[in-house]
Amino acid sequence: MNRRILAALLLSAISLNAMSQQSKTISVNIDQPVAPVQSTMWGVFFEDINFGADGGIYAELVKNRSFEFAKPLMGWSVKGKKIKEGDALVLSRQASQSNPRFLRLNIKETSKGDAGISNEGFRGIGVKKDLRYDFSLMYRKHKGDILMHVELVDDKNNVIGTTQLKVNSNDANWHKQEVSFASTATVEKARLNIWFEGNGLIDVDMISLFPHDTWKGRKRGMRRDMVQMLADMKPGFIRFPGGCIVEGMDLANRYQWKKTVGPIENRQLIMNRWNVEFGHRPAPDYFQTFGLGFFEYFQLAEDLDAAALPILNCGMACQYNTAELVPIEDLEPYVQDALDLIEFANGDENSKWGKVRTSMGHPEPFNLKYLGVGNENWGPQYVERAKIFQQKIKAKYPEIQLIFSSGTDPDSERFHYLNNELRGMKADIIDEHYYRSPEWFLQNASRYDSYDRKGAKVFAGEFAAHNNNKIIGSDKNTWQAAIAEAAFMTGLERNAEVVNMASYAPLFAHSESWQWAPDLIWVNNLNVYGTLNYYVQKLFSTNKGTSVLEITREAKPVSGTDGLYASSVIDTIKKEIIIKIVNTEKTALSQNIVLNGKKKIAVGTITTMEGDPDGKNSFEQAKNFSPKEQNISVKKQQVALNLAPNSFNVLKLKYK
């Protein structure tokens, strides 16, 4: 065949194919809602991993404030030429199981700088210029006259904030005193020094330092900038306290909610199970003080107008660790913990646990609606225990929606066994987890298209796209991962009749103290930034809508053909049609959208995220990738788009 003719035929074929691609319109039926979108559709998953609580969102700046770490003086150093052997001793109150240890100091005719203790904080203490800091401690002075000099110093030992605290009481009882002072500089890695001046014998405990600018100004509360990142997402729920934290390395190490409420000084510290989980990321100073406990979690959910979603241990320790089980005949206390938690959240102020909540300053119920039974547990031993929890809880609180585990993965024989058993139990909600490659997320965007619409609902409780294992830390939070998650989430949204809840995991990571990556939000002692994954989650959660709309291309769901993924919802409150489209191809695509229905579209905007698949955000470039919004034209109920390569696009169309 003549080369010119062959070339012409090839060019013609390419042109016809391009025209064919561009002629495939996306149709949205804007007058026919398919299913409601639950208010809980997009939420956040919190676990104390990566120093997410202590050293993170819980704003305490002193590490090992109560000397209860396995090594009692971890985080502390004794300073000064007049502190001799035996002058600083860790002692134990035999009468107290929750907080037995304290530090006894024998002060002998000292001046400032002669005798003191110093705390290093969590990889240093982040201090901001002109901000007030609230220092407090518990003490018991046996004799003498002692003045404390409290100071913050920078990494060159320059004093950047100081005050004094006079010990007033002199008896056998424990007392609490506090004092505030301001910092004169911004420092990422400061230290706290306490110098003792005078002569005497004193016991100290619960030594604490908090910034004054906590979330909602609550004393000894949460770090404001981290909570604000959550508030900006407008989450429908907050799942807590985990995660594997719930299970513990063994049952003694499990999370016990009753030990996390009441006065702070009476909450019993335990080792964080992520302390020893990963040999390549050891964290020997990782413990749980429970200053951030179940009351504070419920309060945070209320602050954010999000449903609280607590998860409780079901009598099973982590099956990857000890796999310890409570015998069935001894399970009753675990079930009672669940019943008591519901009373703590919802009981009136005269009930046993309602009184505890009231004593903490919240007489009104928290209106708990959801409760998770176990985390990532599996096997017939889990099903046996799940049935007991279901029977006992539903008998007393039939309105509580119970969430059950489907194990650790979405594909195995283990998953299918649990899925069948739980559906046979008529479970309310089944928790599915997926930590998989970006390719898996793209291939599974249609996962829920064929799920039973009338059976148990799905909670996509933990998910994140994981890149090549050679990539570590925050570098794993790439656009390749985030765009794959966006594509998958269109499938969750299209199937909101089945999927009632979804949350990325984990939530927070400290840049110097992480154990697991990728993570949604990265922090250091002073700053916080949202990853690309964060902005994807935020675009979904702030554009949730009220009902799903049918969206098709050639009469089929838009779920991977030509690299396109799409979903659509209507928001009848804001009077908006919201369309989410992902183009995972390396090339741009012209695409026409036809809006079928009687609603008249007035104006529209498109918000886009696009760029290099290997791109990411950082502390230095916190918004290197972030959504960009612009107006678009709507003509005759149609929108002509040019979808950038590797892009996630959210169209918001106002209707009359």
Task: Describe the protein's architecture and organization.
The chain is α/β, with parallel strands linked by helices and 656 residues long. 19% of the residues lie in helices and 34% in strands. The protein has three domains: 17-37 and 548-655, Immunoglobulin-like, CATH 2.60.40; 44-59 and 214-544, TIM Barrel, CATH 3.20.20; 76-211, Galactose-binding domain-like (Jelly Rolls). Strands 1, 24, 25, 26, 27, 28, 29, 30, 31 and 32 form a ten-stranded mixed sheet that branches. Strands 3, 4, 5, 6, 7, 8, 9, 10 and 11 form a nine-stranded antiparallel sheet that branches. α4 (332-346) crosses α5 (352-359). The longest helix is centred in the N-terminal third of the chain and has 21 residues, at 3-23. The protein is globular.
Concise structural overview:
The chain is of the alpha/beta class and 656 residues long. Strands 1, 24, 25, 26, 27, 28, 29, 30, 31 and 32 form a 10-stranded mixed beta sheet that branches. Strands 3, 4, 5, 6, 7, 8, 9, 10 and 11 form a 9-stranded antiparallel beta sheet that branches.
Helix/strand layout:
Blueprint: H1 3-23, E1 26-36, E2 44-45, E3 76-79, E4 88-92, E5 101-110, E6 116-119, E7 125-127, E8 132-153, E9 159-166, E10 175-182, E11 187-211, H2 224-233, E12 237-240, E13 270-271, E14 287-288, H3 294-303, E15 307-312, H4 332-346, H5 352-359, E16 370-373, H6 380-396, E17 401-405, H7 413-424, E18 429-436, H8 438-443, E19 457-465, H9 479-494, E20 499-504, E21 508-510, E22 521-523, E23 528-530, H10 532-541, E24 547-553, E25 556-557, E26 564-571, E27 576-583, E28 589-596, E29 601-610, E30 628-632, E31 638-643, E32 647-655
Helix pairs in contact: 4-5, 9-10
